[in-house]
Design goal:
The chain is built from twelve helices and 20 strands. With about 525 residues, it is an alpha+beta fold. The protein has four domains: about 55 residues; about 190 residues, f41 fragment of flagellin, N-terminal domain, CATH 1.20.1330; about 90 residues, no CATH class; about 90 residues, no CATH class. The chain has a seven-stranded antiparallel β-sheet with strand order 16-15-19-20-7-18-17. The chain has a four-stranded antiparallel β-sheet with strand order 9-8-12-13. α3 runs antiparallel to α10. The longest helix has about 55 residues.
């Protein structure tokens, strides 16, 4: 049976194919003009989802970069302010030293007191600085003047707040120093410099690592001698022993480092080995296990915990070769006492023996306090004291408690020094000299902590920049088009479309015979 192809059917075919060619050409033109292979869900539904994910990660990374810049401004200005304070305290100390060195008179004392008053005003200007309208040393109270003079005394109006800024997916860093750290205390303090952190054990809680900073649960990755990249989820671990067991079960040889301060992973195949975090992760970093080694052995950094009074002295690396402990000497107002610590087996024993010996000698009470990994010694009475070593005895040095303890009052010591100069009180000036030196050391320690924050900002800025490049490249692999291939495809699509128009015009030429 012969079927007749109607004009409407021909017209429908022509329309459908011509429109299809037009849409194909239009899509290619859009890709060429945008430079993107994926411009809508219709182009690649799965690709759009991945692109949106990368866009979100890039926005987060951009926010971290902005946070880093704001944090850097705060840290750098605080750093500058502390150095200015140190310079002003040194000026005050030079004035006091000149007055107590001999040859001073009531007139020079009066001039010195005037100079100290001027230094107080300069110090007040430094500590009341602001950053973008926010008080630098006000803690959380950034809307008020941090220090004001009330009834002849300068008092702190801020609070104890320490502001944190997120500078990475799992990294939050303090950026300010509250003014309470500058006001100091009327109690005499000898800040310790010892590192009394104990070695890690399999039972060490992961939440206690890095002196209490804890860890970031998540996934680690490594590439071994075979060049294959592997990943392992450690989220279920609770102790150092759990981490070691999981890594060993995954084919690595994981142990505690020989010095007990961190972890160590070894590729049984002999290396090279690269161990770290997948993009956006922070687990390996929080465990101290980031690095590459040609010999296949990656040794982690120090992630020990803060000590408590129950820590055994034998578990403290800094005391290796110093046990049993010997004795040290305490001097307060010219009265000396020897403290024998030979019977101590724990840090708590050291505290008990020390405080008991001081009391038994009739000295003003001294207390031992743990501050991070160091021992501090304080006298609530405000009396100056000295801890010194006995001949051929390294106990005081090993515990990190050598030196002098003084009050650390920023404005209090300056006011007292000014009053002593006005009264030509040489003993008062000498006391002020000791306290100024202790306060200067306190400010320099704060400045050192800021240096560590600046290093952290620099490091995180580098990580974020590398992450930004990686995310942008991954997004481009999915979204961006091959312009050379697109140009060729577009030319072919244009030719096809033009040909379809020509064929359509030929087929649709009508005459009277078409209706017979």
């Amino acid at each position: 049976m012969i079927s007749r192809v109607t004009n409407s059917h021909i017209a429908s075919l022509i329309y459908r194919h011509t429109n299809s060619n037009l849409l194909s050409m239009t899509r290619l033109q859009e890709q060429v003009s945008s430079g993107w292979r994926v411009n809508s869900y219709a182009d690649d539904p799965q690709g759009v989802g991945l692109i949106q994910r990368y866009d979100a990660l890039l926005r987060e990374n951009g926010q971290y970069a902005r946070n880093i810049e704001r944090a850097r401004t705060m840290v750098q200005q605080t750093d500058t302010a502390l150095l200015d304070l140190v310079d002003l305290l040194r000026d005050a100390r030079e004035l006091a030293q000149r007055e107590v060195s001999g040859g001073a008179s009531a007139e020079t004392n009066r001039i010195g007191a005037t100079a100290i008053a001027a230094i107080v005003q300069q110090v007040l200007g430094v500590v009341n600085q602001s950053v973008e309208g926010n008080s630098l040393f006000g803690g959380f109270r950034t809307d008020i003047t941090s220090f004001v003079r009330v009834g002849g005394q300068i008092v702190y109006q801020g609070d104890l707040g320490v502001m944190g800024v997120q500078i990475g997916p799992h990294t939050n860093m303090p950026v300010n120093i509250p003014g309470s750290e500058l006001v100091g205390t009327s109690a005499s303090t000898l800040p310790g410099i010892g590192d009394l952190a104990p070695v890690l054990t399999a039972a060490t809680s992961l939440n206690d690592l890095a002196y209490g900073a804890g860890w970031v649960p998540g996934t680690v990755q490594w590439t071994g001698a075979d060049g294959v990249q592997l990943q392992l989820d450690l989220s279920g671990a609770g102790t150092v022993g759990d981490v070691l067991s999981l890594l060993n079960a995954a084919g690595l040889s994981a142990t505690l480092a020989a010095d007990g301060t961190g972890l160590q992973v070894t590729d049984p195949a002999g290396g090279p080995l690269t161990f770290g975090d997948p993009a956006g992760g922070g687990t390996a970093l929080s465990l101290g296990l980031v690095g590459s080694a040609a010999n296949g052995v990656v040794t982690g950094t120090d992630v020990r915990t803060s000590p408590d009074w129950s820590v055994a002295l034998a578990d403290v690396p800094a005391l290796s070769g110093q046990l049993p402990l010997g004795s040290l000497q305490v001097e307060v107002d010219g009265v000396t006492a020897t403290v024998n610590l030979a019977g101590a087996t724990t840090l708590g024993d050291v505290r008990t023996l020390f405080e008991a010996a001081v009391t038994a000698a009739g000295l003003p009470p001294l207390t031992m306090e743990l501050d991070g990994a160091a021992l501090n010694i304080a006298a609530a009475s405000g009396a100056a004291f000295t801890i010194s070593a006995l001949p051929s005895d390294g106990t005081a040095a090993a515990l990190g408690v050598l030196g002098e303890g003084h009050p650390q009052r920023l404005f209090g010591v300056l006011d007292d020094l000014q009053a002593a100069m006005q009264a030509s009180d040489l003993d008062g000036m000498r006391r002020g000299l000791g306290e100024l030196e202790a306060l200067e050391e306190h400010l320099l320690r704060l400045e050192t902590s800021l240096g560590g924050r600046e290093n952290m900002l620099d490091w995180m800025e580098g990580l974020n920049s590398a992450q930004d490049i990686t995310l942008s490249r991954n997004r481009a692999d999915i979204r961006d088009a091959d312009l050379i291939q697109l140009s060729s495809d577009l030319k072919m699509a244009e030719t096809t479309y033009q040909a379809s128009l020509m064929v359509s015009s030929k087929l649709m030429q009508m005459s009277l015979f078409d209706f017979l």
